[in-house]
UniProtKB/TrEMBL annotation:
Protein family membership: Belongs to the zinc-containing alcohol dehydrogenase family. Quinone oxidoreductase subfamily.
An example Gene Ontology molecular-function term: mRNA 3'-UTR AU-rich region binding
Limits of the Enoyl reductase (ER) domain: 12-323
InterPro entries: ADH-like_C (IPR013149), ADH-like_N (IPR013154), ER (IPR020843), GroES-like_sf (IPR011032), NAD(P)-bd_dom_sf (IPR036291), QOR-like (IPR047618), Quin_OxRdtase/zeta-crystal_CS (IPR002364)
Pfam families: ADH_N, ADH_zinc_N
Keywords: NADP, Oxidoreductase
Organism ancestry: Bacteria, Pseudomonadati, Pseudomonadota, Gammaproteobacteria, Chromatiales
Protein name as it appears in the record: NADPH:quinone reductase
Reaction(s) catalysed by this chain's protein: 2 a quinone + NADPH + H(+) = 2 a 1,4-benzosemiquinone + NADP(+)
EC numbers for this chain: 1.6.5.5
One Gene Ontology CC term in the entry: cytosol
Enzyme class: oxidoreductase
Length: 325
């Protein structure tokens, strides 16, 4: 059968995205075919597009989506046609009307969660989960620093961190985003062009510095983030929105009083079905209780994915974004 999908045949800017008709095979053993109803936009999609994260060309794009199971392959009994599901994972092919995916990685969507919310929140919500519960497990009373606090991951992580009892200091680039960050859980908000960000963080923490920094900006903020940490603090460097972090000497960590640095990726924390489903239970619990709200602030037709990439990279988006097939 045929379906339509965004494909790239070369790396480059948003202009390399092409909306094409492609052949889709029947689902193989262990697979299910999903008809997408909403597709999550993520910054990682831009890294696949530019080649910062290697993908074999030609390639699809997109790492999370929600939809309806249309057909299942041999040996699949965890899911059935008609089920409403969401998934995150590889291969990156979520920017499509339909696709096949490993059936045992499809997560049923709770009734109270819409398809848009599910697609907008799974990858980002599970990222917030492992950042706050695994990379540096936040404790009641900890002060933490969170970059891009009004963005996709940032909006969810700030709400969840506050729910866990942290004092959340968010960093954003505009006054409009600052307002949003405050309503989404940040106790304090600093502007990203502040000329002394570590100094401002110290002022807010009685001179001590924060227990952990969650830094998705990368190159532009790495050393400011280290300087904002308390002794033995943890730097969680989890993204490259401004470019990858340059190589640095471990002596930089000694100089700043025995710091720790980790560079995690989501898929290492949800590598088995058991770990994936356990994480989803925690995610849908905070969503269900209302502790964390998924804000879908932008919607684009799938065919206009290139414009969505332009806006994401130009820092024009807030919260989550979905592409609609
Ligand atoms: P966001 O919605 O957060 O968008 C990125 C934000 O980063 C922008 O809105 C902007 O916020 C900020 N930013 C700072 N500097 C730049 C820059 N030079 N160019 C563009 N944006 C900049 O995206 P996502 O929620 O999809 O992802 C957030 C980050 O988390 C990304 O870096 C992504 O790679 C990372 N990530 C990592 C994962 C992992 O497991 N390691 C998993 C999921 C996401 P502002 O204008 O307020 O500065």
């Amino acid at each position: 059968m045929k379906t339509r999908a965004i494909r790239i045949h070369e790396h480059g800017g948003p202009e390399v995205l092409r909306f094409e008709t492609v052949e889709l095979a029947e689902p193989g053993p262990g697979e299910a075919r999903i008809r997408h109803t909403a597709i999550g936009l993520n910054f990682i999609d831009t890294y696949h597009r530019t080649g910062l994260y290697p993908v074999e060309l030609p390639s699809g794009l997109g790492s999370e989506a929600a939809g309806i199971v249309e057909a299942v392959g041999a040996g699949v009994d965890s899911i059935a046609p008609g089920d409403r599901v969401v998934y995150t994972g590889r291969p990156a092919d979520a920017y499509s009307e339909q696709r096949n995916f490993a059936a045992d990685r499809l997560v049923p969507i709770p009734d109270a969660v819409s398809d848009e919310q599910a697609a907008a929140g799974l990858l980002k919500g599970l990222t917030a989960w492992y950042l706050l519960k695994r990379s540096y497990p936040v404790r009641d009373g900890d002060a933490i620093l969170l970059h891009a606090a009004a963005g996709g991951v940032g909006s969810l992580a700030s709400q969840w961190a506050r729910h866990l009892g942290a004092t959340v200091i968010g960093v954003v680039s505009t006054e409009q985003k600052a307002g949003l960050a405050r309503t989404q859980g940040c106790h304090h908000v600093l502007m990203s062009d502040h000329d002394d960000l570590p100094g401002a963080v110290r002022e807010l923490t009685g001179g001590e510095g924060v227990a952990a920094v969650y830094d998705s900006v990368g190159r532009d903020t790495f050393f400011d983030s280290l300087d904002a940490l308390r002794p033995h603090g943890v730097m969680v460097s989890f993204g490259n929105a401004s470019g990858p972090v340059d190589p640095f000497s471990p002596a930089e960590l000694a100089k700043r009083h025995s710091l720790y640095v980790t560079r995690p990726i989501l898929f290492d924390f949800i590598d088995t079905r058991e770990r994936l489903f356990a994480a989803c239970d925690e995610w849908f619990e905070v969503v269900g209780s209302g502790a964390v709200k998924i804000c879908v602030n932008q919607r684009y037709p799938l065919a206009e994915a290139a414009q969505a990439h332009r806006d994401l990279e130009a820092r024009k988006t807030t919260g989550s974004t979905v592409l609609l097939p």
